């Protein structure tokens, strides 16, 4: 800052004395709303482009950089462009309604509309990609959480399985990423996993839950305004831990797939069409299936099931051959203690890749799909202690999916930015509550940027971390 003030010394001379006492920084700039600073040639492209919450923070960023002489703030993208070398670009600006440009008055080229902007030094610039977390109470031990619109208001709500309270909680989004206190509905004993989708074709999101200690799944149908009917209970195998909703037999009805931890199998409950389900069909997968996900891994337009088994060094790929006929294949992995699994195309080849959470190894595994359901290239990335869950979303607006991972033992969430081909930078961490167990990366305040939502099993709360 001292260096910057020296650069601006001539101009700020009168102002500095009075400002020191107030602990404020001050910079005088001309402001030109609706004008875009234009370079005459490529030598004066912005030397930095950063995401900033607002134009004031963009100015602060400029003040922090000795060479910064001008900024352009794009309101739609929140991109703050910092320019140096502007002196010879005389009077070259163009109209662009979505931007605000400010030129340092020491350049004195643009005097029209000159304003004085002062900002206190304590203004919280959005120094990273995310704001500080907001906290919401849940029931006891929220292990699993999903984010979905359950009252058809186009705002995403939070649905959480409170494992020790034996209920699900719904936190309604009031529209700007702020949530109401939870509304609860009773389910079975120790709900461990929750999923949301329309199971009775009425265009309303229903809730299904895997109840670990009652060996059942609960289906809660949406009554139409975000209120839910009492649970309907279906028996499954021993200690269901992971639940997914997907149409497995191509009849346009959502089926339920559940991993039965102590039965060494998964069960599929086929939907009769009105939200009632048949007895579950069993597929053996090996000991301790702990996490499952559904995706078409071999590009035959049929959803397959990928199952991680807690103490196994292989992952089961259950290929969907034809309307409910399945073929079980195993793929070897180097990790021995996978606790969670997800699927996303991380290298932009339109094939779903697998991401594993390796809790003992403090790493995540990225298994790149060759296209036919084989995963020959496997990469691991170190994360924090005892990672518990991952989510995928485009955090830095480069159209490539990045990864969020919750590190349970160190109570933080790590963001790993994707370099574009499925390799990831080291994680940047953000503190959350105690023992985070579930994470989502999704836009809850309608600004087209994914926010981080975390359920903290140890502190009985949700953290909402909005993107800047
Ligand atoms: C202004 O910038 C444009 C585009 O970079 C360039 O074509 C034009 O020659 C410049 N005008 C002046 C007066 O420098
Ligand atoms: C680009 O503009 C800068 C500043 O006006 C000037 O010094 C430089 O020579 C120009 N470069 C080219 C290649 O025109
Ligand atoms: C700025 O420009 C506008 C439009 O050209 C003009 O009406 C106004 O008087 C100018 N203001 C100053 C302070 O020069
Ligand atoms: C969201 O809206 C509520 C009520 O209008 C308001 O109290 C709250 O400050 C807003 N939050 C944000 C982050 O804009
Ligand atoms: C659930 O299954 C386990 C394992 O078979 C069994 O020990 C337990 O008693 C069952 N619980 C209920 C409520 O049936
Ligand atoms: C929601 O719908 C149910 C069933 O139609 C009704 O009992 C309940 O009062 C409604 N609640 C609200 C808040 O509208
Ligand atoms: C719903 O469940 C509650 C408590 O679990 C019970 O008191 C109520 O009678 C049930 N309602 C219906 C319609 O079954
Ligand atoms: C749903 O469909 C099944 C089979 O067609 C039928 O047995 C059941 O009564 C229906 N349930 C409701 C609530 O309509
Ligand atoms: C497992 O690790 C070994 C040694 O690091 C490596 O040679 C091998 O290719 C890995 N296997 C897989 C399937 O990634
Ligand atoms: C899958 O595709 C890879 C890469 O194209 C190829 O090496 C491999 O043999 C294929 N495997 C099967 C089972 O088709
Ligand atoms: C991905 O890109 C990085 C950086 O550009 C490079 O180091 C790495 O080798 C690439 N990996 C693959 C699998 O192409
Ligand atoms: C990334 O993490 C690895 C392992 O934790 C570490 O050795 C390496 O120095 C880190 N790289 C950067 C650029 O921080």
UniProtKB/TrEMBL annotation:
Domain spans labelled Apple: 39-106
Signal peptide (residue range): 1-21
Family annotation (Gene3D superfamilies): 2.30.30.100, Hepatocyte Growth Factor
This protein's UniProt keywords: Signal
Domain of life: Eukaryota
Pfam families tied to this protein: FG-GAP_3 (PF13517), PAN_1 (PF00024)
Keyword match Signal: yes
PROSITE patterns: PAN
Family annotation (InterPro entries): FG-GAP, Integrin_alpha_N, Pan_app
Protein name per Swiss-Prot or TrEMBL: Apple domain-containing protein
């Amino acid at each position: 800052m001292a260096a910057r003030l020296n650069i601006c010394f001539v101009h700020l001379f009168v102002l500095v004395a009075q400002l020191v006492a107030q602990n404020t920084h001050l910079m005088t700039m001309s402001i030109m709303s609706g004008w875009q600073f234009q370079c005459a040639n490529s030598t004066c492209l912005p030397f930095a482009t950063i995401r900033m919450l607002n134009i004031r923070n963009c100015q602060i960023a400029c003040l922090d950089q000795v060479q910064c002489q001008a900024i352009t703030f794009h309101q739609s993208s929140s991109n703050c462009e910092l320019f140096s070398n502007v002196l010879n670009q005389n009077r070259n600006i163009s109209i662009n309604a979505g931007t605000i440009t400010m030129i340092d008055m020491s350049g004195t080229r643009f005097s029209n509309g000159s304003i004085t902007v002062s900002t206190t030094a304590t203004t919280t610039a959005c120094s990273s990609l995310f704001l500080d977390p907001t906290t919401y109470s849940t029931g006891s031990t929220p292990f699993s959480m999903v984010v979905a619109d359950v009252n058809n208001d186009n705002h995403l709500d939070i649905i959480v399985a409170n494992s020790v309270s034996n209920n699900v909680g719904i936190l309604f989004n009031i529209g700007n990423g702020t949530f109401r206190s939870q509304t609860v509905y009773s389910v079975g004993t120790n709900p461990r996993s929750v999923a949301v989708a329309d199971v009775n074709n009425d265009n309303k999101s229903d809730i299904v839950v895997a109840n670990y200690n009652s060996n059942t799944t609960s289906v809660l149908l949406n009554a139409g305004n975000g209120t839910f009917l009492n649970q309907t209970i279906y028996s499954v195998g021993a200690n269901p831990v992971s639940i997914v909703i997907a149409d497995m037999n191509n009849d346009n009805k959502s089926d339920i797939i559940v991993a039965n931890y102590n039965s060494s199998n998964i069960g599929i409950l086929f939907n009769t069409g009105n939200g009632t389900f048949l007895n579950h069909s069993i597929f053996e997968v090996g000991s301790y299936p702990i996490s499952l996900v559904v995706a078409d891994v071999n590009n035959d337009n049929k959803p397959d099931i990928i199952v991680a088994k807690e103490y196994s060094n292989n992952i089961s790929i259950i290929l969907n051959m034809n309307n409910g006929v399945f073929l079980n294949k195993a793929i070897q992995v180097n990790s021995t203690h996978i606790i969670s699994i997800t699927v996303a195309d991380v290298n932009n080849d339109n094939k779903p890749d697998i991401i594993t959470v390796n809790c003992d190894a403090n790493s995540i595994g990225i298994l790149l799909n060759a296209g036919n359901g084989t995963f020959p290239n496997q990469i691991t990335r170190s994360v924090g202690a005892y990672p518990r869950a991952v989510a995928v979303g485009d955090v830095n607006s480069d159209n490539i999916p990045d990864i969020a991972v919750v590190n349970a033992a160190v109570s933080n969430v790590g963001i790993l930015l994707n370099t574009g081909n499925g390799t990831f930078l080291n994680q940047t961490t953000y503190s959350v509550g105690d023992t985070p167990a579930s994470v989502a990366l999704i836009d809850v305040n309608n600004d087209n940027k994914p926010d981080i939502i975390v359920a903290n099993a140890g502190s009985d709360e949700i953290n909402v971390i909005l993107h800047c």
